[in-house]
Each structure stands twice: as structure tokens, then as C-alpha cells.
TrEMBL record:
Residues reported to bind L-tryptophan: E344
SUPFAM superfamilies: FAD/NAD(P)-binding domain
Name by which UniProt lists this protein: Tryptophan halogenase
Keywords: FAD, Flavoprotein, Nucleotide-binding
Positions annotated as active site in the UniProt record: K78
Binding locations of 7-chloro-L-tryptophan: K78
InterPro entries: FAD/NAD-bd_sf, Flavin-dep_Halogenase_NPB, Flavin_halogenase, Trp_halogen
Pfam family, one: Trp_halogenase
Taxonomic source organism: Shewanella loihica (strain ATCC BAA-1088 / PV-4)
Residues annotated as signal peptide: none
Keyword set includes Protein biosynthesis: no
Length: 508
């Protein structure tokens, strides 16, 4: 059977990212139609308001103006995740922190990790990247004279998820002729071979297709309720299974941090994301170690005001992923594919990765689809497992012993075996590029370096020749000098956003 009709179930970020990826990849195929069916009665989750740098390439590929994106989606720049209190306060000080920066470490020459291991009195990020100083100074990653999607430093975005979905929708409809149908699905019809044949809707009747994409969120109407693809539970490794999400206003003159703030507490952590007119704050916790009332009280204490005055949501988080992501003629994306706590903007990251992977390999018929399914499921299982390991590493490296949550996260029975093997290897030698041999590592060498040594992982120092040590020292001084220069040259974060609102950025 030829694949000419593609149907996406569900809007939101996942559905419209998929529509844009497919629209772009198939814009030369006049025989292919793409339809997105969205319920008028189901709001998007809208919690994931942070991204990673890879999203810039996707937006540029879709033909979306960065200036328009920033103006319309309340965008702020994200250069880092600043982790606060993830280490023991008695050993590392109250308010201890480190940055997981978005610029590459050691950009001026050799990897400075060995030099840092010999000189751990300086924060790792501060030694290996000028971006550390820029973040702490509250500066933007670029100037108004930079071209769209270009900058002096690496960056991603914070954004209003609902407005982002609307912008993606408009782009897919206008640029790629995606058909948009507002309807509620009442029934799913299957073919004799178990594939999906059509969706039966309340106002548009039966809508058939050759290939379906499930972006129906936690409901997982197609991949779970219809096709019964099993779920791989990861709650034995990642304990945080609830989040309280709230939006609070900020003063229009208040400084905007150019990073996500991730503050640890006794049973999880708090995300704090500043947009131009409000903060999105989420209290992530484990229901095994903290009850809902305690969580609400602690979030109120963090905000310095009673959370009851705002609308908030308590979100259960079922942690894990589908055993198959592409099953028969159905691809799952977004929350329908799986969910891990939003520690590293994982949902949008994996959705963007998976949608791009399939769009660029979109099969023309059922035979090619079967071949793609096997490869895609292997790739995505590998990717999800590596993300689980990367998130778990943040917890099991912590030396906090003030609460059972942190102690239990170091239990070897809860640490994935591949992560345990890597950590043993890195006790003797810091990570190198060859340790990340797959092209499908969602988090790569630089991500691990920032977290490992931001959290003071005890890798044994190696003996180095005097000339190398001198070269490292010179390089570290140069990075520090660049950081001082950028602190003075780059604009204050809110100042740049206000200029973009008026003038826009230079076109590519």
C-alpha cells in the first residue's frame, strides 16, 4: 500500500512540530497530503516551556523568522540550566550551584578538564567557558546586530508553549498546506491486519489515512488505547512522579535570568523559567517521599507568597516510554511516546529529534515502513535509555544526605547499568569523544562534562608534562579574558529582547 495520506492526531507542540517537519521534508511530493486533527475541547499541557539549542536548526529549517518567534511567543533566551543546592550545603556551601552551559566547553583549544581536575578551586563551567560569566552577569547571548539564529554564544529559548503551538500551526498551514480539522475522535477503526484505517469524529465523519501520528498527549489514544503497545516503566530509576505547575507575574522592569533555574529540595527540585511578563514555576517531587500538602507549602515558601491565589495544576508524571514508538502504521510523538521529568527539556527535545528522523526518511509504501519501523524503534529505545541515564546522573552524583530521597538515589540497584559502567570508567579518566560513539546520543560529551564536574565527580587527576600544563593555564586565562570582554560587550537580557520587539534581528 502506498503512503499518500498522513494524519496527525493532536495539536500542541508535538503535533505541530511533526506537521512542520513532515511538511518541509515532503514539500516536493505533490501526491502526499498531511492532515492534523485537533480536539476543540482538550487544552494543551503547556508545561514544557524550555528548549535545547537544537530547536534553532528546526525553526530555521521551517522558515520561521526568529524575530517573529521571539515577539509572538514571549520568548527569552536560555543559555544554561543553573542547578542550585544539588550538593551538600555543609561541604559545598548553602546556595551552591553549577551551570550546565549551552556553549561548547574549552572552545579555544585542548580540553581543559584535566587542568580543572588539578585546580578544582574554580567552578568547572567558569574555567572552560566564557558563558559562565555572561550568565551570572545576566547578559544575552547575542547582539541586535547578529543575524537570526546566530549569536556570540550557544543558546536555546524559554517560551509560551500555547503561543508556540499557534505559531507552528500557522506556519504549517500557510507554508506546507497542512489541513487543520477541529473535531473530537469518537472511535478508531482498524483494518483486518490490525493497522489503523480511520478516525470516526463527531463533526467531520470518518477521516481515513495511510499513516497516523499519535500526538494525543497522555491520553495516547492510538498507540496505547487502540494498538495496546506496552509501556516501559522507569519509576524504579527516576523517583520524581508529580509536579505542581503555576504561573506568577513579574514586573516589566525586572531582570530576566538568561537560564533555567533548577533548585533542589528534599524530595526533588523546582524549575523556574522567566518569560517577559511572567515566571513558569514547577515543583517536581516524589510522592513516595513527600505528600501533596507539604509540596504546596514548600512551593508557597519558595515563591514568597501563597500559591492559593493563583491557578495551579498538580500533574502526575508516568515516567517511561513505549516499547515500540512506530507500530504498524502509527508513530507516537510527544507525551504519547513517553515522558521523563522535564529536567533537561526532554519532551520537546525527543519530539523534535524523532519527528525529524521520520520525516526525512518517510517511507513511500508499507514495505518500506516495516523496514523503517525496526530501525526507528532501535534508535529511539537507545535515545530514551540514554536520556534516562543522563537524568539519573544528576541525582546519583549528589552527595546530599539530608533526606531519604537523595540517599536512595545513590542505591546501586536504582542506577542503570550502562550509567554505572560509564561512571566507573570516568573515575580513572575524564570522558572523551570516543565514549559517545553513537550518532543518536541525545546528550553528548559536553553535556556530561558540565554535569559531572559541576557536581565535583572524583575523577583521578593524571600526570601531565610541564609544557601542557603551561598551555592549559594560558588557555584558561584567555577564556577568562573572553568572558570579561563579553560581559561588557553583550547587552543585558531584557534590553536585547526589547530591542528585538522594536527592530527585529538581521535576516539570515
Amino acid at each position: 500500500m502506498d503512503i499518500k495520506r498522513i494524519l496527525i492526531l493532536g495539536g500542541g507542540t508535538a503535533g505541530w512540530l511533526a506537521a512542520n517537519h513532515l511538511g518541509k521534508a515532503l514539500e516536493h511530493r505533490q501526491d502526499v497530503t498531511i492532515t492534523l486533527v485537533e480536539s476543540p475541547d482538550i487544552p494543551i499541557i503547556g508545561v514544557g516551556e524550555g528548549t535545547v539549542p537544537a530547536i534553532r536548526q528546526s525553526l530555521k529549517r521551517f522558515g520561521i523568522s526568529e524575530s517573529e518567534f521571539i515577539r509572538r511567543c514571549d520568548v527569552t533566551f536560555k543559555q544554561s540550566i543553573k542547578f542550585v543546592n544539588w550538593m551538600d550545603k555543609d561541604r559545598h556551601g548553602a546556595g551552591n550551584f553549577y551551570h550546565h552551559l549551552f556553549d561548547m566547553p574549552s572552545p579555544l583549544g585542548e580540553d581543559l578538564t584535566q587542568h580543572w581536575l588539578d585546580n578544582t578551586n574554580t567552578a568547572y563551567g567558569d574555567m572552560v567557558s566564557p558563558q559562565h560569566k555572561v550568565c551570572e552577569a545576566g547578559r544575552a547571548p547575542k547582539r541586535i546586530t547578529h543575524s537570526e539564529y546566530e549569536g556570540a554564544l550557544g543558546y536555546a529559548y524559554h517560551l509560551n508553549a500555547a503561543k508556540f503551538a499557534k505559531l507552528l500551526a500557522e506556519n504549517a498551514i500557510r507554508r506546507f498546506n497542512v489541513e487543520h480539522i477541529m473535531a473530537n475522535v469518537q472511535e478508531v477503526t482498524l483494518r483486518e491486519n490490525g493497522e489503523i484505517a480511520s478516525l470516526e469524529t463527531d463533526c467531520r465523519g470518518s477521516i481515513g489515512a495511510d499513516f497516523f501520528i499519535d500526538c494525543s498527549g497522555f491520553e495516547s489514544l492510538l498507540i496505547d488505547k487502540t494498538l495496546k503497545v506496552p509501556f516501559v516503566d522507569k519509576s524504579h530509576q527516576l523517583f520524581a512522579d508529580k509536579a505542581i505547575a503555576v504561573q506568577v507575574p513579574i514586573d516589566e522592569n525586572e531582570a530576566i535570568p538568561p537560564y533555567t533555574l533548577a533548585t533542589a529540595h528534599q524530595a526533588g527540585w523546582i524549575w523556574d523559567i522567566a518569560l517577559t511578563h511572567r515566571r513558569g514555576v514547577g515543583f517536581v517531587y516524589s510522592s513516595k517521599y513527600m505528600d501533596d500538602d507539604t509540596a504546596l507549602n514548600k512551593l508557597s515558601r519558595y515563591l514568597g507568597q501563597d500559591i492559593a491565589q493563583y491557578q495551579y495544576r498538580v500533574l502526575p508524571m508516568k515516567l517511561g516510554y513505549r516499547r515500540e514508538f512506530l507500530h504498524k502504521n502509527c508513530l507516537s510523538l510527544g507525551l504519547a511516546q513517553g515522558f521523563l521529568e522535564p529536567l533537561e527539556a526532554t519532551s520537546i527535545l525527543l519530539t523534535d529529534f524523532a519527528a525529524g528522523f521520520v520525516a526525512n526518511r518517510m517511507p513511500k509504501d508499507s514495505e518500506a515502513l516495516a523496514l523503517l519501523s525496526e530501525q526507528f524503534n532501535q534508535v529511539m529505545t537507545y535515545a530514551w535509555e540514554r536520556v534516562v541515564e543522563f537524568i539519573k546522573m544528576h541525582y546519583c552524583l549528589s552527595d546530599r544526605s539530608d533526606a531519604p530521597f537523595w540517599v536512595d538515589n545513590r542505591d546501586s540497584e536504582t542506577i542503570p547499568s550502562e550509567l554505572a559502567t560509564r561512571l566507573k570508567l570516568w573515575q580513572n579518566h575524564y570522558p572523551i569523544r570516543q565514549d559517545f560513539f553513537s550518532k543518536f546520543e541525545v546528550f553528548d560529551l559536553e553535556n556530561y562534562l558540565y554535569v559531572l564536574y559541576g557536581m565535583h565527580y572524583p575523577t583521578a587527576p593524571q600526570v601531565a608534562a610541564k609544557d601542557r600544563r603551561e598551555a592549559w593555564q594560558a588557555q584558561a586565562r584567555q577564556i577568562a579574558s573572553v568572558g570579561e570582554h563579553l560581559m561588557k560587550e553583550l547587552p543585558e537580557h531584557r534590553e536585547l529582547l526589547e530591542k528585538i520587539a522594536v527592530y527585529g534581528l538581521q535576516k539570515c
